[in-house]
Write a structure and sequence with these properties.
There is one protein chain. With 154 residues, this protein is α/β, with parallel strands linked by helices. The chain has one domain: Nucleotidyltransferase, domain 5 (2-Layer Sandwich). It has 5 helices and 5 strands; from the N terminus they run βββαβαβααα. It has a 5-stranded mixed beta sheet with strand order 3-2-1-4-5, with helices on both faces. The radius of gyration is 15 Å and the shape is globular.
Amino acid sequence: MSANIKDKYLAFDFGLKRIGVAISDENKLIAFPRDYLINEKDVFDKIIDISKKENISKIIIGLPINFKSKETEITKKAKDFGNKLELLIKLKKLNIEILFYDERFTSSIAQDKMINSDYSRKKRREKGILDSLSAQIILQDYLDKEKRIKNVSG
């Protein structure tokens, strides 16, 4: 599957317990948060199902790097997750590109977004809301950056 107007991008905010999920529109202009996934044994099967159903051509995985631009233990786990997903995608013969994307500050941006919007205190405490908003921020930043690059290169 080549990148075209009908495909979408998928993004993940990796976590040991929950994985935030976001998906783009078909024009790859807007990112929308989706329900989070529980990071358990069948998570890869669920991702493959979403990818097939939504015609995904690219998966962006948020890479948690610390403020000093150093990798941490969670960075390594996110990379392992992405590498396992990439292997499974190849085994299933799906044409989906996997890439990692710096996710520094996305959780704090997501928290600020929740506070400054209509999310009630109760809603802000719900598990997974922050994870999927973080995934949305990762994906939207990626989409915006991709659009700027296309505009510069013609």
